[in-house]
Specification:
Elements lengths: L2 E7 L8 E7 L8 H14 L22 E2 L2 E2 L21 E5 L8 E3 L2 E2 L2 H8 L21 H11 L6 H5 L6 H12 L8 H14 L14
Helix pairs in contact: 2-6, 3-5, 5-6
Length: 222
């Protein structure tokens, strides 16, 4: 199948950037979206051109490293799917796909589709942890926790920190990410001692990073 790609190219943070159009003539329906970019890059290298830079790691929808806007949607049109798990079988021969990086002041573009998401790391560093004494690991059942609390905390902890919520938000808000990282600690007894300080520090850091305010568009939950 033939796929046309309109890809954002930008040499660095200070470069103006522009879209460039490419054709991948031999895309396979079983390819993931990132594998499609791999094929495109092989094609560009053979032509003596610079490959398209993009982030990736596990390619299993787990690590949160990948992340691009596909046809105006963070991670693409397949719901609850990271772009590394978006497969070409969802497209037809001759389709055109527009690929862009996350767009947010707090996520400056490094090159092409790669953005600097270290702002998330600094939010975590401001309070996304619990202070514990070092020593031997306690027994697993030494601190009983209701299963309902554990399950809810796990749901919040399932956030992989990819940044799609920021990319989807019209205000580029990181409220969903920050709230998830606060809540996964607040629901467990280990996180109670620092709960108030944690909220203040993480929210203040989020604001310092330049993320916008939540305005309840709910695009981050789409």
């Amino acid at each position: 199948m033939e796929i046309k790609l309109k890809v954002w190219r930008q040499k660095g943070p200070e470069d103006k950037g522009r879209f460039e159009t490419y054709v991948v003539p031999d895309a396979n329906p079983h390819m993931s979206f990132l594998e499609l970019l791999d094929v495109l890059n092989e094609q560009l290298i053979k032509e003596g051109k610079d490959p398209v830079e993009f982030d990736h790691d596990c390619r299993e929808g787990i690590c949160g490293s990948c992340g691009v806007v596909v046809d105006g949607v963070a991670h693409g049109p397949q719901k609850r799917t990271a772009c590394c798990q978006l497969h070409m079988r969802h497209y037809k021969d001759g389709d055109s796909i527009v690929v862009e990086p996350w767009r947010a002041k707090a996520f400056p573009i490094i090159r092409d589709l790669v953005v600097d998401r270290s702002a998330f790391d600094r939010i975590i560093g401001a309070g996304g942890y619990v202070s514990v004494g070092t020593g031997g690991a306690p027994d697993a059942n030494a601190l009983p926790i209701p299963k309902e609390n554990v399950d809810e905390a796990f749901d919040y902890a399932a956030c992989i920190g990819c940044g799609a919520c920021v990319a989807a938000c019209p205000n580029a808000s990181a409220s969903l990410f920050t709230a998830a990282k606060i809540s996964q600690m607040a629901l467990l007894p280990q996180g109670q001692a620092e709960r108030s300080e944690r909220v203040l520090n993480m929210v203040e850091q989020m604001e310092r990073e330049g993320f916008g305010d939540c305005s309840n568009h709910a695009e981050c939950e789409a």
